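TICKET: design request
STATUS: open
ATTACHED STRUCTURE:
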């Protein structure tokens, strides 16, 4: 009954059908305390699963608003209580004070600060304050990945609100650029007549990124005067976002326990060990905030030196328009980070010479001074904890002065900061005898190892499929192609060459087509089984001590277009690496988006050999020197690590149709292929579904990362997310 009342109440928040809605999400009602975001999100997913689209929209939107309000309240209460005179920390006791005189002063101040935060939280968040609105790690991760927008876009689509559906889809896609289903949905939205280009707007990205990018665009057009207000706004908003992040570091005890497990800095012993452990975790979290703020949505790495870069842009722009005092102020601020930077010192000398006589009071920006001094003070405490308490700390800033770092840690820190992400060598495979011991698949033989393939982390294995199994998968690919199930590639031409046709099929699409009767269930089931077979074999050979997870599975066929093969000079697939952006001119491979940086091992399982061309080949990082070549055949697996050590391509297919199962594996469990699990659930027989449902508790479960884990009050499995 309470849930029904909540749905009815939130329905009142929706505008009437056909009325315009403002872009983004409207603020909550003034003065109304936020509700628990996790409960709202759970109810929203249940409404979505039941097909109640309007309540789902209201609940999911309110969950997003509530989470934002919770963050603002924590930030504001932290700032208020830090500035409140009655709860400020005491001054250090004088030298004449007795032993232990500081202890009651410090603990009394801590109690007063806690009282202030509790009362402020109750005023802003209602009875119970922040303790009532604690959010578990799974829900926090879902919001960080913007998963509510994935469900919102589908619900808006069902409500015929295409503008808002496109905005929600775009918001999710910005943070999840590798999400295959959303990529397909975005393409469909672009083809819809009711969707305009301006509909694709990001409802979540902080404003400082737009200001920063706009400022850089003006600078690129030599419009320094127009760039300055944007760059200044970007810096101010970046600093404000850092403060907001830091406020979250003092979150509820539940979050701190999870941080303890992640960081391995759990406290042992008595009161002061516990205080030291908790404070160390808070400082570690605060130090990470600059990196979090400097990371664009959908990217895994922060923009290097984000704040110093903004200061450099500002002093250069001020100098271009003749604001020399502001130029001096910003270059002095930059020198707080890098006091020995020659370019900055040269610019400072030039600005001061142009100003003429010295200007008293002209110094670095106060906001940057406060930031640097506070950050250095925290680093000093953290390095003390590292040296004397066994704590761990990975300094995110390359500008930290060497004097702050204990001598025993300086060399390792320098190596860590200079090391590029792709410099880590993947673990070498165990000896073949160990691989044979763990291999339980009969009939599989090692045909070529890394030495025979003139490289590292490469292998060719035969016998993974029998000819009848290859035939079943070939028929599956053919039936799916006839059903129009190409995975996001518009038209029939290959995305890599105009001389071939390209057809792709994912495991989830195969399962959906099998349930619809468009393809055989045997082929879809075999596709799942074979992908798991390849994963277990790849793990046994390359990574026996570290679990591998499937990150993406794709059944692909390339067909030569008749009449277009004469004097053909291109490749079926250009030379590339699978987890980094290859630069053949320098031989380097940049492990950053748009590459799928989380991929660790790749596999190609071939289904046929009745075609011309289409051999796989490996090259040096220059993409020119071929080091090995492999001819496809039924049941042959080519497995290799996904980095710069294994650039590869495919020779042109000049006649016939070449089919293979492409698989990528990851060590990161958060990047495992969710569609694989969904496909497995979808292919289960109805009798097994009924048995499972009967054996489950009919009560609803809390929401998890994926909707199919939820159940409604009747204990029924909710329907899977459909395509548009």
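STATUS: resolved
RESOLUTION: sequence designed for all positions
ATTACHED SEQUENCE:
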């Amino acid at each position: 009954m309470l849930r029904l009342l909540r749905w009815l109440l939130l329905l009142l928040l929706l505008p009437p059908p056909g009325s315009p809605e403002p872009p983004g999400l409207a603020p909550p009602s003034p003065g109304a305390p936020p509700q628990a975001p996790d409960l709202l999100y759970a109810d929203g997913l249940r409404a979505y699963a039941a097909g109640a689209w309007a309540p789902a929209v209201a609940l999911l939107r309110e969950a997003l608003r509530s989470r934002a309000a919770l963050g603002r309240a924590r930030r504001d209460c932290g700032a208020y209580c830090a500035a409140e005179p009655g709860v400020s920390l005491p001054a250090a006791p004088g030298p004449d004070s007795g032993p232990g005189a500081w202890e009651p002063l410090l603990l009394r101040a801590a109690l007063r600060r806690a009282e202030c935060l509790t009362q402020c939280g109750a005023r802003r968040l209602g009875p119970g304050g922040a303790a009532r609105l604690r959010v578990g790690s799974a829900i926090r991760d879902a919001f960080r990945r913007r998963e509510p927008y994935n469900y919102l876009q589908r619900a808006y689509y069902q409500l015929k609100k295409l503008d808002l559906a496109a905005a929600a889809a775009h918001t999710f896609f910005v943070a999840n650029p590798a999400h295959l289903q959303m990529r397909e949905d975005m393409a469909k939205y672009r083809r819809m007549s009711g969707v305009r280009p301006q509909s694709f707007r990001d409802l979540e990205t902080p404003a400082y990124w737009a200001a920063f990018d706009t400022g850089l665009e003006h600078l690129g057009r030599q419009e320094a005067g127009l760039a300055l207000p944007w760059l200044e706004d970007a810096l101010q908003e970046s600093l404000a976002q850092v403060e907001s992040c830091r406020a979250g570091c003092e979150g509820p005890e539940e979050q701190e326990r999870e941080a303890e497990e992640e960081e391995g800095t759990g406290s042992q012993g008595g009161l002061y060990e516990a205080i030291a452990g908790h404070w160390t975790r808070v400082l570690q979290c605060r130090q990470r905030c600059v990196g979090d703020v400097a990371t664009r949505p959908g990217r895994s790495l922060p923009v290097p030196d984000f704040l110093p870069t903004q200061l450099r842009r500002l002093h250069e722009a001020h100098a271009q328009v003749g604001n020399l005092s502001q130029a001096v102020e910003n270059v002095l601020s930059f020198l707080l980070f890098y006091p020995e930077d020659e370019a900055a010192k040269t610019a400072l000398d030039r600005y001061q010479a142009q100003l003429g006589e010295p200007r008293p009071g002209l110094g670095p920006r106060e906001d940057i001074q406060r930031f640097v001094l506070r950050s250095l003070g925290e680093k000093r405490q953290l390095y003390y904890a590292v040296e004397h308490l066994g704590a761990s700390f990975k300094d995110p800033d390359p500008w930290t002065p060497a004097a702050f770092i204990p001598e025993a840690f300086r060399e390792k820190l320098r190596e860590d900061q200079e090391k590029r992400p792709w410099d880590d060598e993947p673990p070498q495979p165990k000896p073949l005898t160990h691989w044979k011991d763990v291999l339980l698949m009969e009939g599989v033989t090692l045909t070529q190892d890394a030495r025979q393939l003139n490289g590292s982390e490469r292998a060719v294995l035969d016998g993974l499929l029998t000819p009848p199994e290859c035939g079943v998968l070939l028929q599956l690919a053919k039936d799916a192609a006839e059903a129009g199930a190409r995975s996001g590639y518009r038209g029939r031409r290959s995305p890599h060459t105009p001389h071939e046709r390209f057809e792709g099929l994912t495991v989830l699409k195969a399962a959906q087509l099998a349930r619809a009767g468009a393809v055989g269930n045997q082929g879809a089931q075999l596709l799942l089984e074979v992908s798991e077979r390849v994963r277990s074999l790849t793990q046994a050979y390359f990574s026996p001590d570290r679990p591998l997870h499937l990150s993406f599975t794709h059944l692909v066929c390339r067909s030569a277009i008749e009449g277009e093969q004469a004097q053909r000079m291109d490749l079926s697939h250009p030379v590339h690496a699978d987890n980094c952006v290859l630069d053949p001119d320098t031989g380097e491979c940049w492990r950053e988006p748009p590459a799928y940086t989380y991929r660790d091992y790749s596999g190609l399982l071939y289904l046929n050999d009745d075609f011309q061309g289409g051999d796989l080949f490996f090259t040096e990082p220059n993409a020119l020197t071929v080091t090995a070549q492999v001819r496809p055949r039924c049941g042959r697996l080519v497995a290799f690590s996904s980095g710069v050590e294994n650039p590869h391509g495919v020779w042109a297919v000049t006649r016939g149709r070449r089919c293979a199962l492409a698989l990528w594996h990851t060590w990161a469990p958060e990047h495992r292929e969710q569609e694989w699990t969904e496909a497995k659930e979808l292919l289960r027989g109805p009798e097994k579904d009924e048995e499972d449902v009967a054996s489950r508790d009919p009560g609803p479960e809390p929401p998890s990362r994926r909707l199919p884990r939820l159940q409604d009050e009747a204990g029924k499995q909710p329907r899977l997310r459909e395509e548009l």
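CLOSING REMARK: The chain has a mean pLDDT of 79. The domain at 446-683 is CATH 2.60.120.620 (Jelly Rolls).
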